[in-house]
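Thought: the user wants the 3D structure for the chain below. I'll pass the sequence to the structure tool as-is, report back what it returns, then summarize two notable features.
Action: structure_tool
Action Input:
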Amino acid sequence: MTNSGVRVRIAPSPTGEPHVGTAYIALFNYLFAKKFDGEFILRIEDTDATRSTAEFEQKVLDALKWTGLTWSEGPDVGGPYGPYRQSERKDLYRPYVDKMLDNGGAFRCFCTPERLESMREAQRAAGKPPGYDGLCLHLKAEEVTARVEAGEPHVVRLKVPTEGSCDFHDGVYGDVSIPWESVDMQVLLKGDGMPTYHMANVVDDHMMKITHVARGEEWLASVPKHILIYKHLGLEPPVFMHLSLMRNHDKSKLSKRKNPTSISYYSALGYLPEALMNFLGLFFIQIAEGEELLSMEELIEKFDPDNLSKAGAIFDIQKLDWLNGRWLREKLTPEDFVSRVLDWSMENDRLVEGVKLAQSRVTKLGEVPPLAGFLLANDVGLTPASFGGLKTSPAETLEIVTTVQADLEKILEWNVTTIEEELRAVSERMGKKLRVVTPPLFVAVSGSQRSLPLFDSMALLGRSVVRQRLKVAIQVLTAMVGAQN
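Observation:
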């Protein structure tokens, strides 16, 4: 490895709660930059205008700052190669697309969405992987010009070789060979003039002088597309490094459907950022037993990108708990511990706003902790008895909680107003009154049938904690329904 001008980046999409996988990839890039005296850069890849929001972008920034990582260039700090949001770089991509059209590396595609869907259905029916069939690849230049001048909607696609393979060297996997026949003719420029991820990714990495691209192994299959784009543009590709995905104990992909994956969830439950970074950093270093407790400086010192494991990174929550406990006991003074507890309880104004909500519901101050304590609890201790006093049956309660959990995922901005609007809409779709829908949710999020105002409580808890509590409630209710059958 060389330390001459190393520049790496983390490029998350602001389309949801920041995933611990983002912290995992960001940490590797950060350690790499620090190890080789390079630059660590943050870029926001928000070309998906329908799902990207300012709220999610802020959550990305807040989550990465919480982990303790810092970047020398980014949307919040600026830098010499900005803007650092892809949505603000739209005009920068077109000359690169035009160059590929001119030299035959790309072509215009006029296929309608209906035609493409029909094509994919036929491919699936024939047992073939879906991919563009090249219908517009051989259109004559005169016809293409006429259709463009007539204003016919179209996209620009990547031209892919039909024979041979793409051979490249990966910093983790070594020499890799991928047949060109397995590479789709990717859309590079959408009909609205915005680039797709692949085109924007390559252009941005070039313009920002990125030397090493370290990302998850799910992007390994995309390397041939990126290498082709670099080739057609006459540019030198960066060094690619594809890191093993974080997985559950059963080797399945770490997913919010199975386990909590949001950085905000671990922050809300009182994990220390140093402990989480310590835990994630152990995937990138070789240590002996008994050397697990490591600061960021120690992780940087032991980091060796030439000696990485291709084995899956198992997200072992018990090991994270063990490390977090050691950090709390061994790395913090009593004064530091008190300060951390106070800071954590004030996160997102949970404690202050929760106490305010309790004011109209108590007759003595001593009633505040049992009423509002669920806002700070890791687990509200749901059991079948928790749902025992509800007017709805276990089956109806399960239907309500399951339906609400799915619908809450549709909310882009998480606040009291949007939560109330969505729950009212859910009630209407289910043909139930709101006063029937809310009691099961009170129990699910607070563990009690007497609690603080529901919508406010859900807003204070945050999306990731509410998601997990509803998941636990569904497990309890499913067992109750099964016991009755």
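Final Answer: Structure generated. The two ends are 63 Å apart (CA to CA). Residues 400 and 430 are 8 Å apart (CA to CA).
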